[in-house]
Amino acid sequence: MIIPDDRSGLSFRLGALQYTIAVIFAALAVCFWYVQVLEHERFKEMAANNHQRTLALRAPRGMLFDRTGRVMVENREARNISLVRENATSVEQSMDLLSSVINVPRQDLLDILDHNRRLPSYRPLLLVPDASSEQIFSVRARNLELPHVLVEEVPTRRYPADEFAAHLFGYVGEITDQQLVRDEFKGLTSGAIVGQAGVEQTYNKLLMGQDGSRNVVVNSLGREIVEGDRHEPLMGNRLELTIDYDIQKAAKDGFDALGYNGAAVMLDPRNGEVLSLVSRPAFDPNLFAAGIDRREWARLTTDKLRPLQNRAIQGRYSPGSTFKIAVAIAALEEGLITPSFRAFCPGGATFYGRYFKCHAGGPHGSIDLRHAIEKSCNVYFYTLGNMLGIDRMHKWASALGLGEESGIDLPHEIQGIMPSSAWKKAKTGEKWYAGETISVAIGQGQVSVTPISLAIMMMTIANGGTRYTPHLVKAVDQGNGWVPYAAPPPKSVVKMKQSTIDAVHEGLWMVVNGAGTGGKMRLDGYDVGGKTGTAQVISNQGKLRARGTDRDLRDHGWVVFFAPAKHPEVAGVVFAEHSEHGSSAAPIARHMINTYFAKKEGRPVPQFPVPGAPTTLVAQQGADATRPSGTP
Amino acid sequence: MFDDRRLLHHLDWLLLTAVLLLTVVGLAMIYSTTFNPLKPEGLQVGPQFIRQGYAVVVGLFALAVCLMIDYRRLCENSLAIYVIVALLLIYVLFFGSSGGGARRWISISGFNLQPSEFMKIALALALATFFAENGRGASNNGDLLVGGLFIGTAFILIAREPDLGSAVTLLPIAFGIMLLAGLRLKLLGILLAVAVVAAPIAWTFALKDYQKSRIATFLDPEQDSQGAGYQQIQARVTAGSGGLTGKGFRQGTQGQYKFLPVAHNDFIYSVLAEEQGFLGVLATLGLYLFVVLRSLEAARLAKDRHGAYLVVGLVSGFTFQVIYNITMSAGLAPVKGLTLPLMSYGGSSIIATLASFGLILNVRMRRFTN
User: Which structural domain range is residue A409 located in?
Assistant: First the structure.
């Protein structure tokens, strides 16, 4: 069978085949050398990205304590439902199933997905923050069908449940895109929780702590196989606030019991510490703790009563008669009058061709400064205002903090308006008319103030002229025990004659303890000084025009106070929206002051008196409460 | 039949050793890719590894049988063998067990037999016999037509399953035999020209959508990085991440954590590249090249044209599959369901491959006998 010539051709073709194959194998070796050796680093990284995950372990935020060491804000473990999209074959399909399992509208889930499209697909995407136990149970039960859906435990803020001090604490929330690019948030990535209001925002850096991380190995289904390195998170620093829990609660209880909205601030005039800062209505900061629902957010932002507004530092209202204190000081310090200066009140007076009324309590006849304060005589202060002119009133009111920011360590404080001729020129281009001064002299017209600025005025008068910067943090614990937190320097020191201070103190004491409008603040044995005020929401003429609309046109009530009048330990303000008269806010102030002294003297913390009970009886009850420990 | 003990003296022990070495490496890689550490102790070894172990035993038996029977006796019966396997393929088309949208297997008590694997041997036998015995080689157009009939029938039967990958492996078998049998190079040129013209026509009319998308994906894997392109990208990542020395046995991440699908099957070589690195690739590539070249030596030494053609046919199919699969393992070729002979998981494949090496050894061993 062997054909010699055929055999040589066969051998040639076999040889060619062998060479060709050898060359192809050599080419394959070169290809592998390229992929495995030259391009190794790139593919090594890609492989690592496939199976290695660094998951953040969120650090619990630092706890907040009151000045007596009582826990006010702490943390709890919330369970979040998240989705890892990376290896999910059909995200839409998973959403369909998940939507029915956890009973959340499908569209809501898709909206969240859409909003986070740019988040790396291996990062868990938060779908349901702080899920209910039923939701967690359902998801765990359907684990096999929803392999990419995770349940994560995350430390989450727990605030007092009753909206207590909501504006003061503020709330936390996911860092926004705008915040991410700012220096103060350097190193944070999207999804981080930061303070978005209140103390949470101001002291975010101290409170935040340091997130930990853990490395895990996952398979192609995203299932965790092995846990690698783990860096434990560092809890944020603990803060001791200057707030006194009981005084804060006293103010809140007062508003609740009387059914008013408004604000209250109590300061320690000896150092500017804030003992209480309340704004009503409030909101529940817990709603924000794990990420607020869109509907809840819409409800809060469109509520006509504006519960998110911190009225204490963000509300601007006419100061009414409380402003007369500043006018009195201006006139005394400018040397225009002495405390014995008398004016005659016939129940009204004409200035610049217009007749200005005193109030219903007049006429006061011939009256001196102390009694003018006590009786809140308009004519007396019209006269002083007319003597001073707007710019000297501006000078002294501003020095006492009115129309300025207090500098409190809370975000988004606004300024009031303390007009002057320069201010009007800049604002409208017109000159100031002397007639406008007369309304301002009794705290109406163009002047408007924030509640905290009135508290600042009272503090400055109470301590003889030091305008401290109000502040909320007393001490901080960075892990090695409590260290006092440096108070900010005072804004300024207002030089006032002792005679001025004495005269004003006496006038304010008489308001409460004499025949004045502040009788409801009287607290036997504690020499409360104060002043009421009524802020017109609208002018009398405007009232007629607005009749029939659903606007609440009732006037606002103010009280400002300090106690004890000789060496004040507390000073502050209570503002009650639409309470019609200043004296309506007085029981709240009285309750706050009473609570302060009760705690100071170790008496049991008093309850807010039953509203509607006669004032005298209320005072009697207060006096009763002093007896058991006050007299041995 | 094995009475002549001198025959064993002529057995190519080197080739046999190389083949068995590759088989063992394959078993090791299957063990590595199917080992499941998440399962309880005792159940961690993958069932695929155990099944492959049995298949290797059956394959070695098949090798021995194919070695003992004189290949000339097989050649005499080549037509009958071809017809029987073709009938099995027809049976599969109608009654085969299906999986993944194709009917490819005959299920016999839990063991899946894939006749297309055995068609490779049957076709090599039939073509080798036909071209050896017609006395004219493959230069005559009429003879080419008959050869074409053998190829065409088998090709269509397998392609209809559908299993285009396996069907395509028949072409190098036929091509190798005809090349050796004196196929004129001019004709080769014409065939190439026809292929170039036919490609766009085939694209439009003959290819199914999934086949088109595979080719499109190969040209631009990123375009479909979660679908078909995913495998190609992951194959390259798997091989590339192995580096020079590899991540170590069972230490691979791509294969172990299933980022690379069917790692124990089509992509076993990617996992080898990942775990054993470029050095492991060089060693196994060397072994494969040795097996191929050494087998072709058997064709050169063959006593007759039957033997030479048979060896070249079998080696051509084997080589084509090896080269294609390894190229694919580095993510450099479109993903086709083409296994790596001797290594990939698959009972029919390992049995048929070991059997064909039985035949190759057979041809060399009997080079002096009459």
Answer: 245-288+311-476+483-630
